[in-house]
Automatic annotation (TrEMBL):
Pfam families: EPSP_synthase (PF00275). The active site is at D325 (proton acceptor). The gene is aroA. It is found in: Cytoplasm. One of its GO terms (molecular function) is 3-phosphoshikimate 1-carboxyvinyltransferase activity. This is 3-phosphoshikimate 1-carboxyvinyltransferase.
Length: 438
């Protein structure tokens, strides 16, 4: 058996200063590739995230005959659309890697491709994540999807079928489930209405509209979305803003590290994603939004954060969709805040790349954190001095980067196993960390 690579040593001490531009938003990157693929004409994407997850989406699309240009940092990407029904049956399994968004949105995209057969697979983490939340509502539209555990676990086989429109209440507040249904609805017979139990990120709705889909958003906080099939999508120019979920590591790092002063540039500030800013404000963090502007249908701004005293926070279920991926790094922030921070209604974190409640509890405890794990959240006591330890990402990108943030305030060096997981969403993270440390 190959020896595991040596852990990354994260030295204690120092502070953070300067400016950083985080890579493109992962959610918007996936969607720009997918919608570009089924549009007519060419889609030009600026700022696409050149990380493992969007690369998985691009590879799946190429395997179905879509020409996607090479993806590398700083280079615009073009997608030659094949039209709403132009995807070819792939000759091999579609590999979704570590990406839940890829697999769930692909299910919606492929379920209605009549007469074509698709098999979707992924890595060990993805093969353990629930897919029935997409497959069950799609079955209501006529989809046929088979897999382990009654179609809940990949590998999944999709036998393309004619789909019919339906009114569907999604079983969980999930933008991935919603987006899969909207994709399926584009080629279904008759209109489809998707009703969410709580509002989730709305990048699909914004982008589908821009591509020319017939889409109506209504109800309290935009929770009802109706798609009428018919109009062809038209290739667009998409400008992808920086990912607030990647910016979150710098925001927390600067808020907790003595002497820190960081500006994160060009961050997407879609209100369905900015829960982390509300929590940092409630903690009393020194945070300001600069140059707020609109870029290609999404709000964008620069964020400046300086170190200062922090208070404990409370996060309840209703807030979770607006900061679902930021909970691991907020758990680190809680260790540095005065009082007991409580996170509840967050059971969704148990079905991410890892069980993020259990993994963060386990790893932060190794660094001296005082916390309790609950079925649906965490209670974390602060301020608690953290100390360096031998920790592990457990293969989860957000855990890797959150532990790196914790190492900044730890006494003594931290040794992090499997740091390479960061490349799933933020390939330049370790270089940016080295550059910003002083
Ligand atoms: O739609 C998306 O792009 C995403 C939605 C969220 O997942 P859920 O839909 O499972 O909440 C989020 O955690 C994930 O990182 C990306
Ligand atoms: C949960 C995440 O992504 P996905 O579901 O696409 O794997 C994430 O990026 O934190």
């Amino acid at each position: 058996m190959a020896a595991r690579p040596a852990p990354l040593v994260l030295p204690a001490g120092g502070s953070l200063r300067g400016r950083v531009t985080v890579p493109g938003d992962k959610s918007i990157s996936h969607r720009s590739l997918l919608f570009g693929a089924i549009a007519e004409g060419t889609t030009h994407i600026e700022g696409l995230l050149p990380a493992e997850d969007p690369l998985s989406t691009a590879a799946c699309l190429r395997a179905m005959g879509v020409a996607v240009s090479a993806i590398s940092a700083g280079q615009p990407v073009t997608v030659e659309g094949v039209g709403l029904d132009g995807l070819r049956e792939p000759a091999d399994v579609l590999d979704c890697g570590n990406s839940g968004t890829t697999m769930r949105l692909m299910l919606g995209l492929l379920a209605g491709r009549e007469g074509r057969h698709f098999v979707l697979n992924g890595d060990a983490s993805l093969r353990s994540r629930p897919m029935g939340r997409v497959g069950d509502p799609l079955a209501q539209m006529g989809a046929v999807i088979h897999g382990r555990q009654g179609g809940n676990l990949a590998p999944l086989a999709v036998q393309g079928q004619p789909l019919h429109g339906s009114v569907i209440g999604t079983p969980v507040a999930s933008a991935q489930v919603k987006s899969a249904l909207l994709l399926a609805a584009l080629t279904a017979e008759g209109p489809t209405t998707v009703i969410e139990p709580a509002p989730t990120r709305d990048h699909s709705e914004r982008m589908l509209r821009a591509f020319g889909a017939d889409l109506e958003v209504g109800g309290d906080l935009g929770r009802f979305i109706t798609v009428r099939p018919g109009p062809a999508l038209r290739g667009q120019t998409v400008v992808v803003p920086g990912d607030i979920s990647s910016a979150a590591f710098w925001l927390v790092a600067a808020a907790i590290t003595p002497g820190a002063d960081l500006t994160v540039e060009n961050v997407g500030l879609n209100p369905s994603r900015t829960g982390i800013l509300d929590v940092l404000a409630a903690m009393g963090a020194r945070l300001s939004v600069l140059h707020a502007r609109d870029v290609a249908g999404e709000p964008v701004g620069d964020l400046r954060v300086q170190h200062g005293p922090l208070r404990a926070f409370r996060i309840k279920e209703a807030m979770i969709p607006r900061l679902v991926d930021e909970i691991p790094v907020l758990a680190v922030a809680a260790c540095c805040a005065e009082g007991v921070s409580r996170i509840s209604g967050a059971a969704e974190l148990r079905v991410k790349e890892t069980d993020r409640l259990a993994v963060m509890a386990r790893q932060l405890t190794l660094m001296g954190a005082r916390l309790e794990e609950h079925a649906d959240g965490l209670s974390i006591e602060g301020p608690t001095p953290l100390h360096g330890a031998e920790v592990d990402s457990e293969t989860d990108h957000r855990v890797a980067m959150s532990l790196a943030v914790a190492s900044l305030v730890a006494r003594g060096d931290t040794r992090l196993g499997r740091p390479e997981a960061a490349a799933v969403s933020y390939p330049g993270f370790w270089d940016d960390l080295a550059r910003l440390r002083h």
